[in-house]
């Protein structure tokens, strides 16, 4: 439009001069818009659990699946995302300038992998046995193996290992693991012996050691820009609150264990940055971001912080959202969508503060936007 406008003929000299000035303004505005929409990194690889799973569990024999209504009610229908709409990584992909969401590993084909892959699997943990009572899932080590398969395809598509290495080192790698190692392992003594084998300190050390091994495997396959997402306050989920006397008091035993893990993960970031000077690792403080929403809900437009929008029993958190169940109407007023997972509205808050820190404690040593600029 501006091009046609700028080259229109038969104007008087004064009018032509006036229009030319406005043409410059329109062109500059158009350039500014295109810059803000530009894709900031060539690809985005995602590792995690149900918080970011976008369909990898759909074909598995598992209770940890969300490919049914009302999951996805605000996304155009169920996809396998454990939310009413977008997840944090969907929003981060948008903020990074991607034109579409990063596809699930079980559905990605051909050159699609060059924009990244989501390997996340609901119920997955750092420890391979985590989540086994729910059926099939792809543990963190399994997700890393799937990534290694992807890298072989990238090498083939780009024509060699050198070209693939140069490409992959510019991509963002988001890793959010550990929640299920507490939720579906350590604090589930009926199925697992880990809480009898380890103190919370020892267990966190074990998890961090295993985590580090897998991160180094990713590094050896070309990853250089890592965003490591801390564990949220699992003790404040509707499921945990349903077991409290007043339906509002968080389980500090669980939260304390989560914070021990997060503290060690933050220290691991320093260690990895020292060991790999050609890479950059950063820690995203999801725990405090989430706590901010719970403690200051009105600031973010929330009214309900202690109950799920869709679920059964006390706090709508004793049994998670069932097929065909009618969820709450005002979903943007809820922090939690179901017994464990955030609503799209909460995911957007977490994603935006992960991408661009609002508080110095949100990210260390930099946020995801800083990582993208490296």
Automatic annotation (TrEMBL):
GO terms for biological process: lipid catabolic process. It comes from Brassica campestris. This is GDSL esterase/lipase. InterPro entries: GDSL, GDSL_esterase/lipase, SGNH_hydro_sf, SGNH_plant_lipase-like. CDD domains: SGNH_plant_lipase_like. GO terms for molecular function: hydrolase activity, acting on ester bonds. It is found in: Secreted. It comes from the Eukaryota. Belongs to the 'GDSL' lipolytic enzyme family. GO terms for cellular component: extracellular region. SUPFAM superfamilies: SGNH hydrolase. PANTHER family: (RAPE) HYPOTHETICAL PROTEIN, GDSL-LIKE LIPASE/ACYLHYDROLASE-RELATED.
